[in-house]
């Protein structure tokens, strides 16, 4: 477990894209975990705080494209019981360089809310306006595309916030399939707080988040994600529709 309006997706919807070359199922190898540099891509990744910067950050999330410019993706176990979450993109050294965004609406599948089904450990949230200028989060830091129906096996970059860390960490390695519905990576030192960390493919699209099996895994050196499929796609479309 990495964790310091409930809707059931009914439509089988394909979302966005399939990443070329991502379906290669060669065996993975351990990556190297380093401090994430302050780049435009990493600014889209942020820490989820309880109530604001004065609280503790407990999970990670990232901005994904939407017509409303206001949607993030994370793990369901991060948001299901949270009523006062605040997203801080690019959080670094105790500072919120772009501002903070409150979670306005959250989207967690009923299969997770009712039974904590590990195959549905994905959530989306619609954010309110930012604290500095009132801008939508995507207008402030950009957003990544979301990709579904992408088989495990490609190289991914996993970026997130560990425990009480004031800077993000990142690791690039090859993901491998873990059964038909889960995938895993070997990245050292991804403890509590890293749940919800995006798995970015080579083109920057988000193909997973830390969560799923054992809510992301009980070994900080091995992390898991749901393989995004039709349920994730439908949940995403509900969030995007709310934000339009």
TrEMBL record:
Superkingdom field: Bacteria
GO MF term list: serine-type endopeptidase activity
A Pfam family that the UniProt record links to this protein: Trypsin_2
GO BP terms in the entry: proteolysis
SUPFAM superfamilies, alphabetized: Trypsin-like serine proteases
InterPro entries cross-referenced by the UniProt entry: Glutamyl_endopeptidase, Peptidase_S1_PA, Peptidase_S1_PA_chymotrypsin, TRYPSIN_HIS
Keywords: Signal
The protein's name in its UniProt record: Trypsin-like peptidase domain-containing protein
């Amino acid at each position: 477990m990495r964790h310091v309006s409930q809707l059931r997706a009914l439509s089988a919807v394909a979302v966005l894209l399939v990443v070329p070359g991502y379906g290669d199922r060669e065996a993975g190898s351990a990556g190297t975990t380093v401090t994430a540099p302050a780049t435009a891509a990493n600014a889209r990744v942020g820490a989820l705080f309880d109530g604001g910067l004065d609280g503790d950050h407990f999970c990670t999330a990232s901005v994904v494209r939407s017509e409303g410019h206001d949607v993030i993706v994370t793990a369901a176990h991060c948001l299901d019981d949270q009523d006062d979450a605040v997203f801080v993109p690019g959080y670094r050294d105790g500072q919120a360089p772009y501002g903070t965004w409150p979670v306005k609406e959250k989207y967690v599948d009923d299969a997770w809310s009712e039974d904590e089904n590990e195959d549905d450990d994905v959530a989306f949230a619609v954010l309110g306006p930012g604290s500095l200028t009132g801008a939508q989060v995507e207008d402030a830091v950009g957003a990544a595309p979301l990709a579904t129906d992408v088989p495990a096996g490609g190289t991914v970059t996993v970026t997130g916030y560990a425990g009480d860390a004031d800077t993000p960490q990142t690791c690039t390695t090859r993901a491998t399939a873990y059964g038909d519905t889960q995938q895993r990576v070997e990245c050292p030192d991804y403890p509590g707080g890293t749940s919800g960390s995006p798995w970015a493919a080579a083109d920057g699209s988000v193909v997973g988040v830390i969560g799923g099996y054992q809510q992301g895994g009980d070994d900080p050196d091995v992390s898991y994600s749901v393989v995004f499929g039709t349920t994730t796609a439908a949940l995403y479309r509900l969030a995007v529709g709310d934000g339009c």
